[in-house]
Amino acid sequence: MDFFDIHTHNNKPVKNVFSIVNKYPTATNFTNPFSIGIHPWFINKNKIDEEFLIIEEKIQHKNCLAIGECGLDKLTETDFELQQKVFRQHILLSEKYKKPLLIHCVKSHQEVIEFKKELQPTQPWVLHGFNKNIHIAESLLKNKLILSFGAAIINTIKLEEVVSKTPISSIFLETDTAEVKIQAVYQKLAGIKNIEVIALQKEIKNNFTKIFKR
Ligand SMILES: [Zn+2]
After folding, report:
1. Could you read off the pLDDT of 124-145 as tens digits, one per residue?
2. What share of the chain is helix, strand, coil (3-state, %, to 5)?
3. pTM for the whole thing?
4. 182-198 burial, b for 16+ CB within 10 Å, e for fewer?
């Protein structure tokens, strides 16, 4: 595969692209590589136990590459304490089954870092859809989180500084729910880093092999 899209909600395979498709516990199709978790927007208090049973079963599927997306979001209506409880459960599963964690984080970067400091996970943590400032990026990188960038880097000027200062070894790329081709995201990153797309492909592939053990 030439391109790696580590977080997408698009179920259709794309030529030359290795994708990790995001799945919720309600999903039924697991024929392609996937991650699975409870998104903080969709936490249903009465279904948590049932959903974690499904997640724990699906984690053991050969196509499961990561746990998530899961995480913390201060702009959603879900009770924040409940979000933290559910996030912690995902972290524990990620450790138990040795799968990387794909994190959704809105205005909760400090809390994510606190969790990392408290639980000292051995599994990699990838913060998906990063689009914040350099200070936040630096504190996440200092705490050994990996940043995944998506369509936002194509037209957000302020993200260029963040991307240019983030070492490629701590970067993944994704399309998430955006109507964008992963190739365009690679192209943009290569431009900012001033390297050829082919050189970037090699580096992202190395990251992928290292983090997702494929
Ligand atoms: Zn997503």
Report:
1. 999 999 999 999 999 999 999 9
2. 45, 20, 35
3. 0.96
4. bbebbebbbebbeeeee
Q: How far does the centroid of ligand 1 lie from the alpha carbon of residue 120, in Å?
A: 25
d(CA 59, CA 64): 6
Ligand 1 centroid to residue 128 C-alpha, Å: 8
Q: What pLDDT, in 10s, does the model give residues 189-203?
A: 999 999 999 999 999
CATH for 3-212, options being 3.40.140.10, 2.30.30.100, 3.30.2130.10, 3.20.20.140: 3.20.20.140
- Between the CA of 91 and the centroid of ligand 1 the distance, in Å, is 18
- CA of 49 from ligand 1 middle (Å) equals 22
How far is ligand 1, taken at its centre, from the CA of residue 206, in Å? Answer: 23
Domain boundaries, the chain: 3-212
Ligand 1 center to residue 46 CA distance, Å?
Answer: 23
